[in-house]
Amino acid sequence: MALYAIGDLHLSLSADKPMDVFGGNWENYVHKIKEGFSVLGAADTCVICGDVTWGMTLEESLEDFKYIDSLPGKKIILKGNHDYWWTTVTKAKTFFNKHGITSIDILNNNSFIVDGAAVCGTRGWFFEEESGAPHDKKIMAREVGRLETSLSSAAGPEEKICFLHYPPVYKNYICREIIDLMKRHGVKSCWYGHIHGAGHRHAVTGFFDGIDYHMISADFVNFIPAKVC
């Protein structure tokens, strides 16, 4: 039983937003995802770090969820900035049960014990100064609160591993609120997505301030889930 992670599948089997239009590594990406997930066995688990589907609602995302469900192993998904379908955990689970989707669970204000490790996380927040958008302190406070709840829910002796959508450190950006929270809870490794294309060269991989960072956007890892432990 092993734990894997990947981010940003950006599936669009019903919505009209296929990532193939970007060319390069995204060409034929749906098939690449299927091939990539072949590294998982039936007893393994993969955390999908947000931007799961372009569907605007659960109903519009159904074919994408069915596709994910057909892939090997259990999948734990968290919210990304493009997951417009996102709703309450109860509604999502009810929807999955209704449609016979059995291998997908949701990471939101909770944690999971997998292979002797505590899977914790949330979407996070990313302040892109160059975009001109204001830094929303309310969103930051909400995400820090959700991560605190997730980390605190893992009260056992297991090692806490943090999964985020947004990177807590990128280029000149350092999110002290999230980094300091992870350090207080003894997090030693953090796995994140969100960054694509030319942005890959600015992604932080390796140790920063005592935490080992792993960038696992699908196009960065060639659509093959990375082994966490």
From TrEMBL:
GO terms for molecular function: hydrolase activity. It comes from the Bacteria. Pfam families: Metallophos. Residues 3-197 form the Calcineurin-like phosphoesterase domain. InterPro entries: Calcineurin-like_PHP, Metallo-depent_PP-like, Metallophosphoesterase_sf, Pesterase_CT488. This is Calcineurin-like phosphoesterase domain-containing protein.
